[in-house]
Amino acid sequence: MLKKGNEFVKRIKASLYIRNVATLASGTTLAQIITFFTAPILYRIYSKVDYGTLGLYIAIVGVVGVFSSMQYLQPILLEKEDNDAKQIMWLNRLINSGMTVIVLVTVVLFGDNLGEALGNKALMPWLYLAPISFFFSGQNQIFSIWANRKKEYRILSLNAILTAILVPIVSITIGLYHNGPLGLFLGLMIGQIVPPILFFITLNRNDVLSLDNFNWKIIKQKSRDHKQFPMYSLPSEFINRLTNQLPVFMLSTYAGPAVVGIYNLSVRMLGLPIQLIGGAITQVFQQQATESYNAQGHFKHMFCKTVQLLSIVALPGLLIIIFFGPQLFAFIFGLEWRESGVFAQILVGMFVLKLIVAPISYAYYIRNMLKENMMIHIYLLISMLIIFFIGFKTFEDYKSVILLYVINYSFVYILYLLRTYHFSKP
């Protein structure tokens, strides 16, 4: 009888897991469908150089964005009591505001030099948008974590859909009447500003952001309680983002913005399944694996279910890209983007592993193995710097360097897969 009762509880949890994933995935699915069908229009309006400039901007803001919360985001989800989580929300918002001022001063003083150093002078005027991107993206992350904690998956889905509609509308409309990347940048700004504003309105109605929830004494105490996050998680995440964007920085420096545009299209398309399915599963896995670990001391069942589901999802796409990558990209985006399909063939294996590992790597936070995670990222940074600096001086074909990058990253993802399985067990 007890065994049957346990099996019934497992079935209920499994169905809840799938339902939560479905709720979040439905929104992100519609959002990515909109993105996919508007992309061929956008890539026929804007040039490779335009997309190369945008890609370099996103890479810079993405790497610097790691400091927007000093990695105090995850404790919002990990705290057992809502009142404590609200204090950490305030901690994150204060850090984000202070760091935005630092980014603004840095851009004003050094922005022109950065664009020139990375081989793209056209980037210089757009860097002045970086503080806006930094602030609103940071606030959006904070509000998204809270929504995930409270299982507000409908709000997350709505934001994804709205962003997917607004960004291409703005970019296409401006692109038809104005040459250059203006439409791309304004579309990006809309996509970064609107979601946190909607979150703010929703949370304000529920008094989540009320000053009554602000207690400076508790905020300081919580910052000390979770000091391992800025100590270990911050360097790890910074290195992770830097290594992810190293191809963009190096290709911009050695090959020019047009090649960055070609590379970024392949990365963007291969990243769609990660945003579409992986993103939804990641948010649900974080919440339910944490809950399972707090209640039972393990989350092995959740781990195995997630890996199995993502492996099945990834297989068809892997085969299609390997056999038809260049032809597919040329057909959808135009012949000038055929080279993106070649990049996709090189990158697809790594992206499949990334899709699988992205959700389950949260096990490092659940089991508080942040120091080990940081050491892996230090290896990753050192090895990638060696690959790129020696590779670009040794190989005439930059695709060979990207292949070495893929092999090394794939090795790290396999290591993560093995270690997180170990962490999931009792």
Automatic annotation (TrEMBL):
Record's keyword terms, sorted: Cell membrane, Membrane, Transmembrane, Transmembrane helix
Transmembrane segments: 21-42, 54-73, 94-111, 123-143, 155-177, 183-203, 309-335, 341-364, 376-395, 401-418
Domain of life of the source: Bacteria
Record membrane topology: Multi-pass membrane protein
Classification via InterPro entries: Poly_Biosynth_Transport
Keyword match ATP-binding: no
Gene Ontology CC entries for this record: plasma membrane
Primary location recorded for the protein, binned into one broad class: membrane
Subcellular location: Cell membrane
Protein's UniProt keywords contain Disulfide bond: no
Recorded family membership: Belongs to the polysaccharide synthase family.
Protein's name in the database: Oligosaccharide flippase family protein
Organism: Gelidibacter salicanalis
